[in-house]
Give the backbone structure.
Amino acid sequence: MKRIALSTLSLALLGVAGIAHAQSSVTLYGVLDESIQYVNNATPKGGSLVQLFGGNLQGNRFGLKGTEDLGGGLKAIFQLENGFDINTGKLQQGGSMFGRQAYVGLTGDAWGTFTAGRQYDPLVDMIQPLTGDNYFGSTFATPGDVDNNDNSFRVINSLKYVSPVWSGFQIEGLYALGGVAGASGSGQTWSGAATYATGPFSVAAGYLHASNANSPATRATAGGWAGTAAPGATFDTNFPNNAGINQAYAFSKSIGIASVAVQYVTGPWTGNLSYSNAQYRPDANSGFATTQKYNVGRAYVGYQLTPAALLGIGYAYTHGSGDATATYNQVSLGGDYNLSKRTDFYLVGAWQHASGNQRVPATATTGAGTLVPSTASIGSYGNQSSTNNQVMVSLGIRHKF
């Protein structure tokens, strides 16, 4: 009876609060994305993998977002978004409670939006929506996600401004403080992007620069990356001692990514093209001596077969040069069928072929800076193939709430 009484009182107080703050709102939302997935060449001896895998079209999440009307067209806003593994319940994004997004800010129709916290960078906000990844997720992403096309990392300690839309034109800028005592520029991240949309045509372009906060003297021993961009997920791999496409460059001094994309929609057809150039720059303690560059070209065509059914095909060409020369060709196919506004079934698949050589970071068995024949790794999954070819197929269901 005590529990019932307390619950009744709590509901009554919430009702009063709702009346007192009628101009405020808080929304609970989430995505549940689960699939049965097949991957070939998934073991060192070439065996196949069949598993439950979540987060193909969208990462699994739940979150809270809210607004408060402050008057005069000004609103306070916030968003807290958690990422989790649907099959284990574990936190993702390095185990962070709100690893996907966590920010607070102010917005106004006349002057735009200013936010502070853990956020997506401008390239993810403005350029990713004009790629196949926007429609079919990680299976259509850049191999290894070398250009963060699949938003493998967020930017922490960041300040972001998004302008209003002026006759179809919009800009966005971000700066993240490094937070290193005595070295304000160490570990900082900055980025800017712009987009223009008119009728069926859209175009966007931007640039991101991220600096490693680990000092040159300690980078090799401290390991990997320390900085506001926190791009650890970009270097992930599930294949021991034969690291992913760009894992050896987690010791970079800095990363620079330039991207541009265009999209055109006509009737049931959607087509887009995009290009990015990612550069992983070294110093004396990076484990590689020459800047590694990745030039990526992507194309996507989608067809809305019915109001409920979408078909899509994508192609990604990724060429690495500088420190290691490798080429990755990936073809992706997808189909999505909506049972309702919130629930859909999907079937996605991809094939990738790799050639050339890629660098493997120092391990007990490979030694420092070893160059090995390139192996395939579809999209941003980090499933390193045992050969230079790989096939992946996922049949899944997604529910939004």
About this structure: The two ends are 32 Å apart (CA to CA). Residues 1-22, 237-242 have pLDDT under 50 and may be disordered.
